[in-house]
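Hey, resending since the last one bounced:
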Amino acid sequence: MNAQSLSIVVPNKACINNCKFCVARMYESKFIDQLDSNKKFYDLYLEDYRKRIEFARDNGCNTVMLTGDSEPQQNRRFLELFGIINNELEKPFRCIEMQTTGVLLDEDYLRFLRSHVGVTTISLSISSFNDEENRDIIQTKFPLQLKELCKIIKRRDFNLRLSLNMTSAFNNYTADDIFKISKKLGADQITFRIMYSSLMNTEQDKWLGEHTCKAELISRINKYITSNGTFLEKLDFGAERYSVNEMSVVVDNDCMNVSARDVLKYMVLYPNCKLYSKWNDKGSLIF
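The structure tokens again:
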């Protein structure tokens, strides 16, 4: 069972943001956190966790994505633990990415992520290029200035991926505008994330119904990519990757991995120390 990457859900009690479109808030979490060091069988579950990471590695996973239902950097102790576990593997992961809105990240934290955790790519979730609007959409109380943060990320020599959540905030931009701004921010990679709706009429679904970008914009972006870019390859999960303006570009139409395919887009490792092929679905248990 080959998978492109391993998504590690970093345990936290609650997210410090409250993104208006947050998928995690559409569902009630079903997974117990067994990685609490105060629990009676912590040592047993820690070994289980290590075995799952090794299993994913043995089955073709070359990339780890530190992610979850919250901001991964909220739990520094866990990130320290992951860094130790990974370095002790017979074949450690070399490509380690973090998905984040960027809150709480500063020079010192980025240094820790690079030196101890081994993070190589910061995948920065952006819902608007306007700082005020971006903060409003993710509903954070923390300061967040994209231009300055991107500058620090690049100064620390991370790969910078802009994961653009395609909200209506981008409707007033042309495709050319989006690529020029991304380049100016220092992006090495861009992922255009088509917004996910659960179709369950949640508050998040209702917000998305009113604030998803126009289909016309996605069409213009796709046309811009094929007209101005060089096709690189088709990824295992079906998306096509292009080189545009010296940036790697992917349009992700299936961020929640709901489409059936022969190769898994990712495996998901929850804090209950078990591996799944889908988000928030216990029926997708692998090991």
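The chain has one domain: 3-284.

Sorry for the duplicate.
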